[in-house]
Design brief:
mainly alpha, 10 helices, about 210 residues, about 70% helix
């Protein structure tokens, strides 16, 4: 299920939303590098401006709500981008096909936002970057299938998701630089939204 056999053109045609997400992540990362070299604008300044999450400011100051979304397309370094990009490239396509383009796009963004909401409420002085909240939202959507729609995934795919989640949980807890709350919030968001999708579609097609 998670083995990608498509050609480059087939991948773009079959998974346009996922392709757009990957292109945006790469474009933002390259754009920051170009801005630093050509325009002498340090990447750290741009990351501080669009990354997240900074606590919602006090009354009288405009809340920086764009951080809920913009931070999902920014990464700390190339390794960070490569790790999240690989997860999106491999694991998201079946979900885009199963949910449809629009619903998948909403799930991705909703999971990213939920990751920032959890960070905002439960973490102190945390500044985070990356699509990991959305990635864990994708895993959360699969976990819903594993728990309540068991025939939706083949046994090997279930084992793959279980293994990745176990490693991810341990890694998120052990490595202090990892934003555990973003992962947790994204996971909860993906699981809940996929549950709502499933119930809505069931009622719709009865």
């Amino acid at each position: 299920m998670f083995l990608r056999y498509e050609s480059f053109r087939e991948y773009i045609r079959y998974y346009p939303v996922n392709t757009t997400i990957l292109v945006l992540c790469v474009a933002v990362h390259v754009g920051f590098a170009v801005a630093a070299v050509v325009y002498d604008v340090p990447a750290d300044i741009l990351k501080r401006l669009f990354g997240g999450f900074v606590k919602i400011p006090s009354e009288g100051v405009i809340p920086e709500y764009w951080r809920y979304v913009s931070s999902a397309f920014m990464h700390a370094d190339f390794g960070h981008l490569l790790f999240n990009g690989f997860a999106i490239f491999v694991f998201a396509p079946p979900l885009e096909r199963a949910l449809g383009r629009f619903r998948y796009a909403v799930l991705f963004l909703f999971s990213a936002v939920m990751g920032n909401i959890f960070t905002n409420f439960y973490a102190d002085n945390v500044f985070s970057l990356g699509a990991s909240g959305a990635v864990y939202g994708i895993f959360g959507a699969y976990v819903y299938y594993m728990l309540f729609r068991r025939k939706a995934l083949d046994p090997q795919s279930k084992k793959t998701i279980q293994t990745i989640l176990i490693i991810g949980i341990v890694y998120s807890v052990v490595v202090r630089e990892i934003n555990f709350y973003a992962h947790l919030g994204g996971f909860v968001g993906g699981l809940i939204l996929n549950a709502l999708y499933t119930r809505f579609l069931q009622g719709r097609y009865r």
